[in-house]
Amino acid sequence: MSADSALLAHIGDLIEGVRSKGAPRFSEFLDERQQALCLPLAQRSGLPFLFFGGWQDASRRMLGVFPEYWEAQGEDFPLAVLTARIPKGFSLCHRDFLGALMNLGIKREMVGDILVDGQGAWVFLQKRLAPLVLQMDRVGKVGLAFQESESEAVDFEQRFQEQRVSLASLRLDCVVAAVCSLSRERAQEKIAAGLVSVDSLPCQRVERQLNSGCKISVRGEGKFILEHNGETTRKGRLCVNIKRYC
Fold this sequence. Notes:
The protein is α+β, with helices and mostly antiparallel strands. Helices cover 26% and strands 30% of the residues. This is RNA-binding protein YlmH.
């Protein structure tokens, strides 16, 4: 059984558990592709459901499925938000925090987003793991202390690098070539190899027409948001704004 088939089978069992027990059930943290894969199954269930990751722009989210009488809310999720302030003079990144959690025996699917800026970090994870992580007193060689916080207190703004480009069309291969500084042929090879996703789902159609607001992920190159308001150049090319996730 493939990983995707196993995930869908698990979500199917979760849904049936809600029906039989009359109580909410929650998945592990899912990445955006997994969320897109599970969405049709959750919709077909006819039960209330919600994807929630602890903050408004979360990338990794749990799927919660609820009994028919339930009004699904984020506060229902078994999720904790832990914060830590990074001491002055030290620098830590997402990988440092994730590595520290893995060293505790915590699996990746138990952890949601890890947000890091120059001053501190926010770690989203299953609530049952909070006591273990709160005992940590360092990440790498940097001493720090975690404390539990409220998701409403998360003060993090996603940063982007913006690039203005002109395109002949909004075909997927044109966009990938532009955002990754590749030839059209090389962009088509990446798409055909399954290395490109649109709105979290793999896409191997080089001719696919994209819309403003689409999220494009290119393995090894990063993740981007496409913005187009209909503006064109004097020669009729499309003026497009590309926002690259930092």
